[in-house]
Design brief:
By secondary structure, the chain is of the alpha+beta class.
Length: 311
């Protein structure tokens, strides 16, 4: 898209002559020159919003996004987003992405999900990171608190389409995902059409006997919209606090302490945190891996349930 725009705007020459038609034919030995103009200022407003920066260099920045912050401006949220904050924080260090002086968003997490995001500061980094996400080579691990405890030995799960097991008591969920036919803000599990989605789930801690809730580790092979939330709901273990997919569940009297039942009922967002992010630096080639501690609200939820946050 960027190259097509440069051609249309007259920034490409073949053998010294400007060519504005992207379908123009070229021959072996032709000299193609591209003049990349200076990146233009973006229309998005820079805002002084506090950020937790985990890593930053000349090509990229890794931040620990708080729950409640939208990643990119949209008609309903034109400001107070992560991009607004990054424009202010990075300032002149943004060399330009797609012809504009703006941060390059290569992946997103939901507004009410907390955790790690990597953002490009240059075109070179943007392309390199995007390729890694496309090839599913980025290491992404999420912590989630869910209803019940998924178990590879559960006959119900063994009979559920799209569910299999792997060594280490890992539940593997493989489906297609697409926008829900009637509820357009939701995603739905499909087995024909849609986009391929794979999530691996492993229980880290359980709470109650039998388990009323559990802390699980979700490793993404793909990164589709709402993937973890939809997949966990599909296997019957929706996220605590998820207003779209989790639902409210009645907890059997005496299964948990009253304060634990109360904190589950009052948890105001999906209990999901992007805890680990690992990738190859798109310029230096260095392998980078970052971890973000459990946010305060999820740490309190786990403490009330009777467990300590897992590193």
């Amino acid at each position: 898209t960027r190259l097509a725009r440069l051609i249309a705007e007259g920034f490409v020459r073949v053998n010294g002559a400007v060519v504005a038609d992207a379908k123009a034919r070229v021959a072996m030995g032709d000299l193609v020159e591209i003049d990349v103009p200076v990146a233009q200022e973006t229309a998005i407003v820079a805002q002084d919003i506090a950020l937790e920066v985990v890593h930053e260099d000349g090509d990229l920045i890794v931040v620990n996004k708080p729950a409640g912050m939208v990643v990119h401006p949209a008609p309903g949220t034109p400001s107070q987003t992560l991009v607004n904050a990054l424009l202010h924080h990075c300032g002149a260090s943004l060399s330009g992405v797609g012809g504009e002086k703006r941060p390059g968003i290569v992946h997103r997490i939901d507004k009410d999900t907390s955790g790690l995001l990597v953002v490009a500061k240059s075109d070179r980094a943007h392309h390199g990171l995007a390729e890694q996400f496309e090839q599913h080579s980025v290491d992404r691990v999420y912590a989630a608190v869910v209803y019940g405890a998924p178990d590879v030995g559960d006959p119900r799960l063994r009979g559920l389409k799209g569910v299999s097991s792997e060594p280490g008591n890992i539940v593997k969920i493989t489906t297609q995902l697409a926008r829900h036919k009637t509820e357009r803000q939701k995603q739905a599990v499909l087995f024909n059409g849609g986009r391929h989605a794979v999530t691996r789930v492993r229980v880290r801690q359980t709470f109650g006997v039998p388990p009323v809730a559990s802390l699980v580790e979700c490793q993404l092979e793909t990164g589709r919209t709402h993937q973890i939330r939809v997949h966990m709901a599909h296997i019957g273990h929706g996220l605590i606090g998820d207003p779209v997919y989790g639902g409210r569940r009645k907890i059997k009297l005496g299964a948990l302490a009253p304060e634990a039942v109360e904190v589950i009922a009052g948890f105001s967002r999906q209990a999901l945190h992007a805890r680990v992010l690992g990738f190859e630096h798109p310029v230096s080639g260095q392998i980078l891996r970052f971890e973000a501690a459990m946010p305060a609200d999820m740490a309190q939820l786990l403490a009330r349930l009777g467990g300590e946050p897992t590193a």
